[in-house]
Amino acid sequence: MSPLLSFIIVLIGIYGLVISKNIIKSIVCLNITQTAVILLFLNFGNLSDGNIPIIHDSSINIVDPLPQALMITAIVIGSSITALSLIISIKIFHYYGTLNWEKLLEREG
Amino acid sequence: MAFIPIYLIFIPIIASMLVYLLHNKYVNYIIFAAQFFVTLLALKYYSIYNGLTKAQILSLGNWEKNIGIVLKNDQLSIAFIFLSIFIWWIILIYCWNKRKNDFKFLFFLMFLEGCFLGLLQTNDLFNLFVFIEIITIISTILILYKKDGYSVRAGLYYLLFNSTGMLFYLLGLILIYNVSGTLNIDITAQKISVIKDTNFIKLGYIFIMAAIGVKSAFFPVFNWLPKAHGAAPSSISALLSGLLVKSGLYAFIRLNDMFKIKGFEDFFFFLGFLTAICGIIFALSQKDIKQILAFHTISQIGMILIGISSSDSKIYIGGLMHIFNHAIFKSLLFLGAGAIINSYGIRRITEIRGVFKRLPFISICMIIGMLSITGAPLFNGFVSKTIIKYGIGKSSTKILMLFIINLGTSISFIKLSQIFWGTSARENHKNINVYSSMLLLTIMCIVLGIYYKPIIMILFGVNISYIHVFKIKNFISYIFTLSAGYIIYRKAIRKDHEIIQYIRHINISFGATNFLLITFVFIMILWEEIGKFL
């Protein structure tokens, strides 16, 4: 059930990316999609009654630790992209006075 | 000496950090030392392992291969490493006069080199993702380095759209990891080949190819490239167009090799053709010199895609060779354009006149670059295009498609070459750095065009001595293409028709680009489904 749910959130995020006309909304939608993808990956590695890896000696029925390690990295990358794009959007507002994609791309120079 | 792959990644990064931390204009020269060491180590590595005909694998921390981080070097990656070190030398020499005290710029430039060399050597699906994302972030900062409105806008578009694309890579990665249980590319390839239920794998393949399509600007999702490459400082444009676009194509080669999925060859051929045609149509409508060159990057990527997606070994080698040739002549053209813009202060090709009188040396280099990109005999673009044509052989529709691409390229460079005519006062200010970097690239254009057989033999270990490129037929066909292009230019393109103005003002908004990306994914899924029934 829950992989399906996270996939639905991915689709919601992508829908937002397609329709949103404001830069801030685009960034938020990108974040939603990113979080949903991370959730999806964690769901695949998850076992509801699994043992903790590495600490427990038994290698039976353990949760796969790799997705969690990978997703920490993905979260770091996602947050740095968000930070950078927010800073750039402040700059854009300084130059153009608008955060609307269509108005922005119409301007020459 | 076994740890050279790690040194290749970390020497540029540590040098860049020293430059950033110490803030001293004499310390900045450490970059050249680092660059020199990297070159030396790459050559040493190449000679120790006899040209890496056997792939060398380095497992960091001696973990098992299926859980640890693994670096792998083979002939392909070492050839790309040499190419990138060479291009970085050129860029450093070119921008040294202007940027030698600009420690931030040098920090990002050298950090980027380390990450790019890491991308080339990694043998791990997730590290590939990490390196591509770091490259995206750093190149965004370099694109908007001038901090004017135009470049800031282009930088944001580039950053957001490329990260959206990479999300699809992550989705594909999840599907593949779920099936194979490892991230190592070699082991994944072995496991995939024995699994019968391939629906999951094919969906993963489609997602990953969509992400790579964004990264290397394939047909419906190329819109970020001309903005970003047109807005960046000229040295960075050369780096982006020459090399960083190839990060996507390199991943394409590696991952296609991993999946070994049949049935997409024709799809990528037509996609390459559409990419090339689209790039040419947009290039013909532009008036900005850097925009024209940026759109031609798209058209040449289409050509490369036709080459590297093929299962025929001759076409594949042609495509691979075209990556190298394109890196050299496109950097040359961008650096030349940068010098011209510096001298004139304007970017519209309708206003720049008399470059040959004003900057004779740069004009000669630019003309050689143009001859290369249009495929003139004795220059490097000709060799790879002829090899691709030879590989395609008798199939007349495909040959016609290649001819159309070539014709369009000729028309557009005839249009661009108008800047050389006319008169202008000679400029006496000589910049040795700019001249020497452009001279090196020009020499490489000619050397790769004439001694291509031994170079291909050394780099890829493939003997192509049975392909005779210097035939009279080819010379005549080049002259025919050029004159047909000139006639079309005079009759159709020179006047600024309404349709050309319309194409020039097409703007695809961010939402629409994302919609095109989704469409791209769906078209690939449809192609796969239709292929099942046929």
From TrEMBL, chain A:
One Pfam family hit: Oxidored_q2
Membrane topology: Multi-pass membrane protein
Record's subcellular location: Cell membrane
Top-level taxon of origin: Bacteria
GO CC terms, sorted: plasma membrane
Chief location category: membrane
Ranges annotated as spanning the membrane: 30-48, 69-96
Keyword vocabulary terms for this entry: Cell membrane, Membrane, Transmembrane, Transmembrane helix
InterPro entries: CPA3_antiporter_subunitC, NUOK/Mnh_C1-like
Stated family: Belongs to the CPA3 antiporters (TC 2.A.63) subunit C family.
The protein's name: Multicomponent Na+:H+ antiporter subunit C
Species name: Paramaledivibacter caminithermalis (strain DSM 15212 / CIP 107654 / DViRD3)
Lineage: Bacteria, Bacillati, Bacillota, Clostridia, Peptostreptococcales
From TrEMBL, chain B:
Main localization of the protein described in the UniProt heading: membrane
NADH:quinone oxidoreductase/Mrp antiporter transmembrane domain location: 123-403
Topology class, membrane: Multi-pass membrane protein
Compartment list: Cell membrane; Membrane
Pfam families according to UniProt: Proton_antipo_M
Keywords: Cell membrane, Membrane, Transmembrane, Transmembrane helix
Transmembrane segments: 6-22, 29-48, 76-96, 103-120, 126-145, 157-180, 200-224, 236-255, 267-285, 292-311, 323-346, 358-379, 399-420, 432-452, 472-489, 510-527
Keyword Transmembrane helix part of the UniProt annotation: yes
Signal peptide, first to last residue: none
GO cellular component terms attached to this protein's record: plasma membrane
Family: Belongs to the CPA3 antiporters (TC 2.A.63) subunit D family.
Name of this protein: Multisubunit sodium/proton antiporter, MrpD subunit
Organism: Paramaledivibacter caminithermalis (strain DSM 15212 / CIP 107654 / DViRD3) (Clostridium caminithermale)
Lineage, top ranks: Bacteria, Bacillati, Bacillota, Clostridia, Peptostreptococcales
